[in-house]
Amino acid sequence: MAEDRNPPWSREEFEERLRSKQVYYHIHHPFHQRMHRGELTPEQIRGWVANRFYYQVSIPIKDAAIMANCPDREVRRSWIQRIEDHDGQMEGEEGGIEAWLRLGEACGLDREDLWSQQYVLPGVRFAVDAYVNFARSAHWRDAVCSSLTELFAPSIHQARLDDWPKYYGWIDSAGLDYFRNRLTQARRDVAYGLEVTLSSFQSREEQERALEILQFKLDVLWTMMDCMHLAYVMDMPPYAATEPEGSTDG
Ligand SMILES: O=C(O)c1cc(C(=O)O)c2c(n1)C(=O)C(=O)c1cc(C(=O)O)[nH]c1-2
């Protein structure tokens, strides 16, 4: 029987295989490597912050889509925390979107620059939308699994907290609160997402599917960085080699 040939991995081995996907995390992307070596110009940092804002505002929409697809009240009671983390609560905490706007200001971007999304590259938009659309259409457990890149996120937030004050002294360190807050939030979120994944992807086939889902999400993050690298490092934003509209009689 197929099940005999491919028995499920133990919980430990399954977790280990999920964690081993770290090698594809966007912390290894050349754009992030430049960032962490202090090699990005203010313009390049601003480009990253403005593009990442599209991810920030899409995350709670993605989480609301997961909740909308989830009939399990206990899961929804837990998952709603993520929306509050980003949107802020009714009273009190301002939330991650507000913290990202302050990061933008610390980098020299107006709030309106970020809200207008005028700097968001088409490929970044497509990649982020693919993530949101996945959460809309997939089984809620698959969508939970796709959040597991957060396993690797604390190290990248910590790297920014360590490196930015060293290399980018022109950015007010109060602007880095977003990364500080995410250190604990990401660890808490991922503990829950990991538990759901380990307990609900049980057969080998399901476990292999979980690895594919995680790879899809890694692809989303990597593709975002590719778009930014092309536009801001290689100086090839979309249509760079194209004559502006109206420049020929055509
Ligand atoms: O700065 C980063 O590199 C990074 C990566 C990720 C990630 O791995 O998806 C998230 C975040 N930050 C983040 O701040 C965040 O709130 C977040 C939510 C999620 C998710 O998939 O639900 N990923 C991430």
TrEMBL record:
<keyword id="KW-0560">Oxidoreductase</keyword>
<dbReference type="InterPro" id="IPR011845">
    <property type="entry name" value="PqqC"/>
</dbReference>
<dbReference type="InterPro" id="IPR039068">
    <property type="entry name" value="PqqC-like"/>
</dbReference>
<keyword id="KW-0884">PQQ biosynthesis</keyword>
<dbReference type="GO" id="GO:0033732">
    <property type="term" value="F:pyrroloquinoline-quinone synthase activity"/>
</dbReference>
<comment type="similarity">
    <text>Belongs to the PqqC family.</text>
</comment>
<dbReference type="InterPro" id="IPR004305">
    <property type="entry name" value="Thiaminase-2/PQQC"/>
</dbReference>
<protein>
    <recommendedName>
        <fullName>Pyrroloquinoline-quinone synthase</fullName>
        <ecNumber>1.3.3.11</ecNumber>
    </recommendedName>
</protein>
<comment type="pathway">
    <text>Cofactor biosynthesis; pyrroloquinoline quinone biosynthesis.</text>
</comment>
<dbReference type="InterPro" id="IPR016084">
    <property type="entry name" value="Haem_Oase-like_multi-hlx"/>
</dbReference>
<comment type="function">
    <text>Ring cyclization and eight-electron oxidation of 3a-(2-amino-2-carboxyethyl)-4,5-dioxo-4,5,6,7,8,9-hexahydroquinoline-7,9-dicarboxylic-acid to PQQ.</text>
</comment>
<feature type="domain" description="Thiaminase-2/PQQC">
    <location>
        <begin position="24"/>
        <end position="226"/>
    </location>
</feature>
<dbReference type="Pfam" id="PF03070">
    <property type="entry name" value="TENA_THI-4"/>
</dbReference>
